[in-house]
Design a protein that fits this description.
Methyltransferase; methyltransferase activity; Rossmann fold; two-stranded antiparallel sheet; alpha/beta; Methyltransf_25; transferase; 7-stranded mixed beta sheet
């Protein structure tokens, strides 16, 4: 267990030093994610998307969403996104502190975020916020296993049982494996993450 690690401070420091969101936001990994998400948005009639942990917006460059809200804890990441998409009026970016002022969207996204949530309290708060941000679908792209790592900013979580226990109004409707499986020899172009699609359960009619 990593003690005294501050995820928010880590990412703000990282972006301020000019580093990016990570290898998963570039190359074939980014294209795979974009193809999956763009198809999902189109085929399910999604009109509004919110992403918790938008980072520097590199992955977003490949997205075709009708309306998009990016949320992040890093002020520097938000500045980068606002600059990159300043002429795109379909996209807006807000601080995590303002998340609860936003209405729910059709789809909430979590892409390559959960395994960076080192602290248990942050992990649980994030998942509650993620599902609270959507009225229809949640898509998570992450590993799904319990494992600590030598990297201070990476801790894998087995999140599916937590969601099944704590998010009773949702069902896991599908999973899609990432075709570029984790390879220690090629970490820049492979990943341990997969897609997990959750759908909000419809309430039975009264009577």
């Amino acid at each position: 267990m990593k003690q005294d690690f501050d995820s928010g401070a880590y990412w703000e420091h990282r972006y301020r030093r000019g580093r990016d969101s990570g290898d998963g936001s570039y190359g074939r990994l980014a294209q795979f994610k974009a193809d999956f998400l763009n198809h999902f948005v189109l085929s399910n009639g999604i009109t509004s998307v919110i992403e918790l942990g938008c980072g520097d917006g590199a992955q977003l460059e490949l997205a075709t969403y009708p309306q998009y809200i990016g949320v992040d804890i890093s002020p520097t990441a938000l500045e980068i996104c606002r600059s990159s998409f300043r002429d795109d009026y379909t996209k807006s970016f807000i601080s995590y502190e303002l998340l609860h002022e936003m209405p729910s969207q059709d789809l909430a996204l979590s892409l390559d975020v959960i395994f960076h949530l080192v602290e248990d309290s942050i992990f649980e708060r994030y998942l509650r916020d993620l599902f609270g941000s959507s009225g229809k679908y949640v898509i998570i792209y992450s590993s799904d296993r319990e494992e600590d790592t030598p990297a201070p900013h990476v801790r894998h979580h087995k999140f599916t049982p937590w969601i099944a226990k704590n998010m009773k109004g949702w069902k896991l409707s599908g999973t899609t494996k990432n075709p570029f499986r984790e390879d220690a020899q090629h970490p820049e172009s492979t990943s341990f993450a997969d897609f997990f699609v959750y759908e909000k359960l419809k309430r039975a009619p009264d009577g």
